[in-house]
């Protein structure tokens, strides 16, 4: 990736481009970053790049003809995206960084004083981004912020020991807290599991702490996160069905495949009428991956007995219900397995009803409804 930064203060970037991870990435040619001085395209004997803002109170704005000349001089690729960091821009998120990482070439134009002439921005800038709701003196730090975040996504820049996929936001969750030696500091011990040497338990602990940190600090992020890896226990999918449906076996085989893809541990089917149990078993005799039980009550009993832990039952199509994001939150908070149930709402405590999927043109077929519901919980962006 190539990034050109147009700035009145190129020296701002000197140590950034020669230090630590970014410095090594530049040195090894993994990213190509250049800072170009806007003053090289200035006007008159005083090398002026800005002028008083019309109607302003004395603030200066960088002139459009200077910006135009600078841009024309650095732009070799007509496809290069032109960016302007500004407090009025779209907030720079990991999503936006990942989408910008797809570009071959970026040109970042740093504002100073009041910013850039608006006519130039309208004519030449593809994206205005902000690094947060505060005002800095210039666009150099926002330019470096973007380059730093982009460089982490370039293969080879960050070593394996700092896997970017475990970092905050990448999977829609915040990162887990980290500890180093000494194991006891000011009387505070490192969580025991981290020194246990049990890799599976350590991984689980890390995922759970990341999920709880996200829930407490940034619940807004949860909508992007697939939560399967962050749950305490297994997820089951339960379906109350009629064995007399002609496409039942085919539908359930498809649902079982979908469920497996999202990491669901078991698909369980029960007849809507208890006396239909034998007929259901016959109908599903060719689907060994689906467990048949005589009733929804037996379904929940099976899940509880298997795990000896409290079971959270989510009734996926019941009314009135809670929003699906709230259901996702409860799923993370629960300490036992989760049963997502379609076609029934069992008579028991600890059942949460989720608002049915909203569509504009009628009801979804069951296979699509199950796939869409699983994707909301377990699919990541
Ligand atoms: N008059 C502008 C406003 O109130 O929106 C502030 C201009 S600021 C003093 C000068 C330059 O710093 C901006 O043109 C921009 O390039 C950069 N800048 C300041 N804060 C920023 C932020 N939060 N995000 C991105 N760029 C910022």
Any descriptors?
single chain; 381 residues; alpha/beta; Alpha/beta knot; six-stranded parallel sheet; five-stranded parallel sheet; 18% strand; elongated; binds S-adenosylmethionine
The order of strands across the largest sheet is: 12-11-10-14-13-15
Distance between the termini: 24 Å
CATH topology of the largest domain: Alpha/beta knot
The portion of residues forming beta strands comes to 15-25%
The major β-sheet equals: 6 strands, parallel
Residue stretches low in confidence (pLDDT < 50, at least 5 long) are: none
Rg result? 28 Å
Specify the CATH architecture of the largest domain: 3-Layer(aba) Sandwich
Tally of separate domains: 3
Q: How many strands?
A: 15
Report helical residue fraction.
Answer: 25-40%
Order of helices and strands: EHEEEHEHEHEHEEHEHEHEHEHEEH
The CATH homologous superfamily of the largest domain is named SPOUT methyltransferase, trefoil knot domain
């Amino acid at each position: 990736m190539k990034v050109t930064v147009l700035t009145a203060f190129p020296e701002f970037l000197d140590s950034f481009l020669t230090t630590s991870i970014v410095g090594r990435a530049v040195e090894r040619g993994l990213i190509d970053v250049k800072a170009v001085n806007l003053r090289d395209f200035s006007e008159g004997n005083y090398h002026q790049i800005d002028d008083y803002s019309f109607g302003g109170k004395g603030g200066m704005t960088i002139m459009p003809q200077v910006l135009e000349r600078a841009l024309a001089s650095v732009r070799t690729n007509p496809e290069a995206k032109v960016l302007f960091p500004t407090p009025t821009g779209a907030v720079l998120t990991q999503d936006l960084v990942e989408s910008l990482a797809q570009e071959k070439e970026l040109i970042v134009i740093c504002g100073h004083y009041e910013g850039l002439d608006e006519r130039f921005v309208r004519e030449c800038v593809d994206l205005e981004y902000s690094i947060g709701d505060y005002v800095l003196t210039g666009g150099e730090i926002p330019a470096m912020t973007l380059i730093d975040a982009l460089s982490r996504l370039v293969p080879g820049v960050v070593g394996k020991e700092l896997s970017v996929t475990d970092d905050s936001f990448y999977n829609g969750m915040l990162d887990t807290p980290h500890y180093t030696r000494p194991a006891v500091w000011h009387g505070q011990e490192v969580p025991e599991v981290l020194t246990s040497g049990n890799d599976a338990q350590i991984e689980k602990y890390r995922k759970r702490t990341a999920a709880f940190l996200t829930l407490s600090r940034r619940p807004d992020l949860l909508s992007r996160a697939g939560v399967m890896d962050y749950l305490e226990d297994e997820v089951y999918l339960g379906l109350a069905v009629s064995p007399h449906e002609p496409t039942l076996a085919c539908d359930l085989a498809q649902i079982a495949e979908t469920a497996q893809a999202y990491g669901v541990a078991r698909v369980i089917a029960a007849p809507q009428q208890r006396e239909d149990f034998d007929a259901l078993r016959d109908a599903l005799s060719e689907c060994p991956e689906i467990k048949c039980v005589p009733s929804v009550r037996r379904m929940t009993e099976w899940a509880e007995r298997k795990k000896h832990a409290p079971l959270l039952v989510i009734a996926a199509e019941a009314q009135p219900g809670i929003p699906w994001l709230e259901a996702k939150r409860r799923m993370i908070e629960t300490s036992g397995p989760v049963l997502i149930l379609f076609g029934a709402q069992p008579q028991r405590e600890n059942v949460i009803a989720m608002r049915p999927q909203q569509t504009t043109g009628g009801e979804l077929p069951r296979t699509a409804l199950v796939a869409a519901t699983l994707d909301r919980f377990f699919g990541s962006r």
